[in-house]
Amino acid sequence: MENDIAVDLGPRRDDQMKDAVSVRQAVLRMSCASAVLAVAHYCLAQTWPSLADTRPNSTIHLGWFVADLFVAGSILLTRGSLRSWSMAFYALGYAIILWLLWPLIKVMEENLLLLVLTLMVYGGLARRPVLVGYLFLFLISQRFLPAYLYTSFLLMSLLYATLPPFLRLLRRRQVFLPLSHFGGLVLLTALLLPILFYCTQTSPQNLRQRLDEAEVTGALWTSLTCSVMATSLVLVLGVPLAYSMVRISFPGRGLINALIDLPIVVPPPIAGIVLLEFLGPKSPLGQFLESQFGVRLFDSQWGIVAAQAFVGSPYLPWMFASRTSRGRWVRRGSRHFFGLPCRSPCEES
After folding, report:
1. Per-residue pLDDT band at 243 (split at 50, 70, 90)
2. How far apart are CA 64 and CA 47, in angstroms?
3. So what's the pLDDT on residue 342?
4. How many Å apart are CA 162 and CA 109, to the nearest integer?
5. Which of 4, 6, 230, 332 is 20 to 30 Å apart from 207, CA to CA?
């Protein structure tokens, strides 16, 4: 019986010894790191007047020292085995952060608080190298593109988030698809940059203040009501047309499909002139609607609804047709594998 207990306690003692050894190693690592950082910060405090032309603020430098300790603890205590290349990687990241923020620190020593905050985030993300990349993108945008800080950060984050699959393709020496993706992102950047720049020019306080104005709320309410009415109109008339186009094959189907796309091809100024001539107060249809029903399309919400319905009419049938066509391919596969019959003449063609 005593031998069995001794056998059972053997692995536990080994685990306890391993834990004790790991704790000793962690304490030794942190002690060495603390000593090295203390010496480094003491030397930095002595040479700080020549670096930044100001006297060092002891409180801010103490915060910097604590942030360095946090970074060292995050690296030394969360990773079991430390290799030279991983230590060089973390040191390089620290140096890049300091280099990106150094111009701000030279202008004002209080900007060291920004460095402290950045180092705390860097230490917290030490085990998530992918997320550290977003931190570096933000700092790069802040250093080189301060006027377009949020815009450039959002666009570079989009590029960074889509990189991994294409990097794997580059390792396989497939160059065309990554280059095509990069060219498409350049075009997307050119399209989104003005919009994002405009959206990030105002602060939440100014936005809240503008939303309280009667003119702004009236314009938003008009846009919302007109959009709902135009979408409802296109939904009632466009979905049946799209359903018949997908489910039934008839002569002239290709011509009608091309005519549905006509509002997209027509430039918006030309579309506005055409609608004004067709529905204006001097047109026969405009005079008839105003005299018989009291509906005035010129300079009214009904004109906005007509313009939105004209410009947006192709999109809803497109969406419905694409989903219906996708279901048609599913039904074709079901018929092929399970012998189910085809349900429409259009699917048989």
Report:
1. confident
2. 16
3. 45
4. 37
5. 230
Report whether 49 contacts 55 (CB < 8 A): yes
Question: Could you read off the pLDDT of 12-70 as tens digits, one per residue?
Answer: 555 555 555 566 777 787 888 888 888 988 888 888 888 777 777 888 888 888 899 88
What fold does the segment set 219-348 form as a domain? MetI-like fold (1.10.3720)
CA-based nearest residue to 178, from 190, 187, 169, 186: 169
Residue labelled with tokens 């006509």: 262
CB 243 within 8 A of CB 319: no
Residues 263-299: tens digit of each pLDDT: 878 887 887 778 777 877 778 877 787 777 777 777 7
The answer, yes or no, to whether residue 2 has pLDDT greater than 60, is no
Enumerate residues 6+ apart whose C-beta is below 8 A from 273: none
CA distance 178 to 184: 10
Tallying the residues shown for the chain, one arrives at 349
* Cα(114)–Cα(211) distance, integer angstroms: 32
Are the beta carbons of 54 and 48 closer than 8 angstroms?
yes
Q: What's the pTM? A: 0.62
Residue 138: its pLDDT value, please?
A: 92
SS3 call for 251? coil
* C-beta neighbour count of 99 within 10 angstroms: 11
Q: Cα–Cα distance between 275 and 306 in angstroms, integer?
A: 8
Q: Which of 131, 30, 134, 24 is nearest to 75 (CA)?
A: 30
Predicted local confidence at residue 333, as pLDDT = 41
Domain with CATH 1.10.3720.10 in the chain: 219-348
Contact predicate 341/335, CB 8 Å: yes
The two tokens of residue 210 are 């503008």
Cβ-based neighbours of 225, under 8 Å, separated by 6 or more? 301
Cβ burial of 116 (10 Å; 0-12, 13-18, 19+) is buried
